[in-house]
Request: fold
Amino acid sequence: MNSLTFVVGAVPASVLLPLLLAVMLNAGLRGTAFFRSLYFLPIVTSGVAAATVFKWIYAKQFGPLNQLVGLVGIPRQDWLFDERLVIPALVLMAVWHRVPLNIIFYLAALQSVPRSLYEAAEIDGAGSWAKFRYVTWPMVTPTTFFVLIITVIAMLLGAFDIVNVMTQGGPLEASNVFVFNIWRTAFIYFQYGYASAMAYILFLVVLGFTALQWVLQRHWVHY
Amino acid sequence: MAVAVAAPRRSRRGEALMYLVLAVGAFFMVMPFVYMLSTSLKPPTQVYMYPPQWIPRPFVWANYPEALARLTPRAFLNSAFFTLAVVLGQGAVTTMGGYGFARLRFPGKHLVFLAYLGTMMIPFQVTMIPTFVVVARLGWQDTYQGLILPILAGGAFGTFLFRQAFVTIPEELADAATVDGANHLGIFWRLYLPLSKPALTAYGVITSLAAWNMYLWPLIVIQSKELRPLTLVIAQFSGQMNAELHLLMAAVALCLTPMFVLYVFGQRFFVEGITMTGLKG
Reply:
């Protein structure tokens, strides 16, 4: 259940933000290479290292996040120890970690859109938005589909590093996501059988998600 | 990465807006690194101030040698050895497997290949328990071989990648080499590998990154202090060094350094590797 909230929270931003940013990084602005280098930095950062830093960014007493939200007048929060805030906090970090990867997939897709399509659209008098809506978006739907699938799977499976370093499933099990639960059942409580059964369910969930997306893709993916 | 083509007409305002969005995005992307570096250079008294001081006064470079001593050079060597073993070992297994599937003929080849591809559908998190039980029964718990060998068996994606790369090499080249007296090993080593450099670098870079950053599997297999790779040490420190945040951040920065250096010199290879492999699930 916590996994579901986590995935539902993290996936939309991890799929749509990269598309937006990739379009801008592909617009031929000056300084693009510089921006790209900055955006790609989280890719080479391990989940453990990132989680260690974020744990302190979220700290109540002296964390920079509280400094930031303080600028808009929100009082200091205990992000990782508040049952309501812990999943949003983990989602924020997961999105931060995922966005750069997905930007790369979108950049590759955008660069393979034929230039002539845009020229044709311009001749027909299309503005920036129309070009995005009727040329870019249809051309990148296969990539969006791919990005959607791998991001859902990655969020289902990858949250372990973050959770184990930052919260250990707490507070009060509020961040006890599926993979963390399997690991704890098997290697802390030593219930291999029970944990294996859970692993099977995880597999079926991943398979089910993928199958569902395959069925739905017919309605919006253009090949 | 190809050079982006500038759109001929675009309003000034649109451009300014894009710069604004990119800058805000970049701020959020980079902020954690800035926080890490700034904290890692602070004297202990300055770490726990609120509001946070972003510029250390004075810069305490001595935090770094001390963090390295805490991490122990052995942990660095463990990570380096593990990464090297995985890259070379998995490289050997997947390239040879890919060659077999691309060029050899044997009964049931398609079935075996399909079964191989099928294993890609099963995430590691699903099979980690039985894998661990096998390692434990072999008596390999808490050993390098227990840590490394199961990873080498998980190269289905690489096998697929190299099969695809090898299939595009014209068969006539291999035939010509055979006429010149080369056997399969010779063709593989002297013809196919050199002709597949892009796939090799892409796979090598991505595999090193994955191995260097791997956490869950080492956490399961390794118990003793001497064998732990950096990720395990950092994760443990993360729970213990609350009172020495400056050293913890310096330690994290040290762990990131090798991959950052690799990234600075080979950003292109990371990008190619990711587009080619999808960062391996």
